[in-house]
Amino acid sequence: MNTPYARRVAEKFKEVQNYLKINGFNRSTKHLLEDIETTIEK
Q: Going by C-beta distance under 8 Å and a sequence separation of 6 or more, which residues neighbour residue 20?
């Protein structure tokens, strides 16, 4: 994560992941991360 945009996306992802965990969506966070990583690789 070396660009300001990439750092911002990573920060937002962590916020969303924490929100999902707090609200009982633990399984969703793994798939969300995989989707983001797949999108970045393309």
A: 26, 28, 29, 32
* Terminal-to-terminal C-alpha distance of the chain: 16
| pTM > 0.70 | no
Amino acid at 2: N
CA dihedral 11, 12, 17, 19 (to 10 degrees): 120
DSSP 1-42: --SHHHHHHHHHHHHHHHHHHHTT-HHHHHHHHHHHHHHHH-
